[in-house]
Each structure stands twice: as structure tokens, then as C-alpha cells.
């Protein structure tokens, strides 16, 4: 099968699987990550098939919505890819990328790294910051029934992972806990460059937000 055919089949599988997904993790998130990943991959010497497949399949089954089962994503992706009769090395590499993409493992000590992983992780992080990042954060917060902002719950920078998981902190806090930290975690030069403007937009957004609060 050609590269284009493999990607077209994968796009169809992902669109179909995610047709009822919530707004922050829907097909259009995947589509933006795919586009970002291709753009970054153009500036790196890497396996673009692995990059594109991992970008398309990275949120195919989120453990957050499957009782915390961390293997559900890699397994769903693997089952699909084995059906396309791709090389085992490609399938297993894509599965490793998906396994390590989660927010949880991105703050753990890295146990796996490849350039292809770095590209896809950057592409996913870019969709969590900037104007889209603002929209996704409030969508997720609304989905979880969180407050937008509460002046009595100051943004915490030093929350443990366990506390973070259980917190009902307002969505504004999420900017300080995660979104403003992503710029300095980018893996590739192109990713860093693309993150700069989006990061600045969030700072401007927060400044405007507080000016309206006062
Ligand atoms: P992804 O799987 O796409 O890397 P996550 O599942 O960690 O990202 O989060 C999906 C989106 O929801 C992101 O834009 C993220 O910033 C947002 N999000 C995750 N946790 C929170 C939270 N506690 N408050 C607000 N937004 C959140
Ligand atoms: Ni994602």
C-alpha cells in the first residue's frame, strides 16, 4: 500500500472512531495535530509515516475516558495497524509514541524518546496553547463542571500530580499548572518557534482577563 493510501485509511478509521468525542479531543484536534506534525517533520530528518500515523492515532482511546487503562490507546492503534499489514517495527514504534504521549508521562522522567515522538509531542502541545489552547481548556473545564475563575483559589504552581488529578481548581489555574510551561518543553526547533507566538497570546489573554476582572 502507498503512503497516501495508508494515511487515507487511517484518517477514515480515526474520523469514524472519534465521531462522538468531546470537543477538545475530536477529529479536528487530531487534524490540527496531524497538520502541525507534518509541518515540523519537514524540518527534521525522520520517518514521516511513523509521525503521521502517531499524530492521527495519538488520542484514539484516551485512558481518562476508559477507567485509567493506559494501554487502551496503544492497543486500539495496534489492532488497526496490524490490519494494514505494516512492518512490525512501524506498528511498535507508533504504539510506543502513543504510550508516552499522555500528560502524565510527559512530566515523568522520560523512558522513551525518538525524534518521531518528539515531533508528534510538539504538535500535540502546540494545540494545547495559543488561541486554540484557550478554547480547549475552557471546553475541558466546562465538561468537568469547573469554575472559570475564582479569586479565592489562587493558581498553584507546586501541586503534586495526585493533588492535580483530584483538584477542582478553576480553569484559569490550568494555565499556570500546564499551558504556560509547555513552551519550554518543546523538543524541536520548529516546535519552539511555533510555540513562541502562541505562548505570548496566552500571556496577553490572561492580562486582558485580569484587567476585565478588576
Ligand atoms: P492531549 O491528550 O490532547 O494531549 P489532554 O488530554 O491532557 O491533552 O488535555 C486535553 C485538553 O484539555 C488540553 O487542551 C488541555 O489543556 C485541556 N485540559 C486538560 N486538563 C485540564 C484542566 N484541568 N483544566 C482545563 N483544561 C484542561
Ligand atoms: Ni492530543
What is the compact description of this entry?
The chain is mostly helical and 214 residues long. The chain has 11 helices and no strands. Helix 1 runs parallel beside helix 3 and helix 2 packs antiparallel against helix 3.
Principal-axis shape: globular
Number of domains: 1
Which hetero ligands occur in this complex? adenosine-5'-diphosphate, nickel (II) ion
Elements, N to C (H/E): HHHHHHHHHHH
Count of extended strands: 0
Separation of the first and last Cα atoms: 59 Å
Profile the largest sheet. none
> Which blocks of ≥5 consecutive residues have pLDDT under 50?
none
Class computed from helices, strands and strand pairing: mainly alpha
Rg, Å, rounded: 18 Å
What would CATH call the architecture?
A: Orthogonal Bundle
CATH class: Mainly Alpha
CATH topology: Hypothetical protein af1432
Helix share of residues? 55-70%
Strand fraction equals: under 5%
Mean pLDDT across the residues is 91
- Tell me the number of helical segments per DSSP (H or I, 4 or more residues long): 11
Protein name: HD domain-containing protein
Domain HD/PDEase: 22-138
InterPro entries: HD/PDEase_dom (IPR003607), HD_domain (IPR006674)
Pfam families: HD (PF01966)
Helix and strand topology:
Layout: H1 3-17, H2 27-41, H3 48-57, H4 72-83, H5 88-100, H6 103-107, H7 115-126, H8 130-143, H9 161-166, H10 171-177, H11 189-213
Helix pairs in contact: 1-3, 2-3, 2-7, 3-5, 3-7, 4-5, 5-7, 7-11, 8-10, 8-11
Adenosine-5'-diphosphate binds next to α8 and α10.
Amino acid at each position: 500500500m502507498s503512503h497516501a493510501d495508508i494515511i487515507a485509511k487511517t484518517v477514515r478509521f480515526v474520523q469514524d472512531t472519534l465521531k462522538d468525542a468531546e470537543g477538545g479531543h475530536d477529529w479536528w484536534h487530531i487534524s490540527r495535530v496531524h497538520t502541525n506534525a507534518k509541518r515540523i517533520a519537514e524540518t527534521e530528518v525522520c520517518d514521516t509515516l511513523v509521525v503521521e500515523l502517531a499524530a492521527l492515532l495519538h488520542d484514539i482511546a484516551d485512558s481518562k475516558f476508559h477507567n485509567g487503562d493506559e494501554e487502551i490507546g496503544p492497543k486500539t492503534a495496534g489492532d488497526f495497524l496490524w490490519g494494514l499489514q505494516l512492518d512490525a517495527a512501524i506498528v511498535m514504534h507508533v504504539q510506543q509514541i502513543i504510550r508516552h504521549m499522555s500528560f502524565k508521562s510527559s512530566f515523568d522522567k522520560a523512558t522513551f524518546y525518538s525524534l518521531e515522538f518528539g515531533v508528534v509531542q510538539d504538535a500535540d502541545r502546540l494545540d494545547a496553547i495559543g488561541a486554540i489552547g484557550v478554547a480547549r481548556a475552557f471546553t475541558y473545564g466546562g465538561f468537568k463542571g469547573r469554575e472559570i475563575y475564582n479569586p479565592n483559589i489562587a493558581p498553584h504552581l507546586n501541586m503534586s500530580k495526585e493533588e492535580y488529578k483530584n483538584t477542582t481548581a478553576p480553569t484559569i489555574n490550568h494555565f499556570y499548572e500546564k499551558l504556560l510551561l509547555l513552551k519550554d518543553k518543546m523538543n524541536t526547533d520548529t516546535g519552539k518557534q511555533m510555540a513562541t507566538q502562541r505562548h505570548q497570546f496566552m500571556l496577553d489573554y490572561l492580562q486582558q482577563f485580569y484587567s476585565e476582572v478588576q
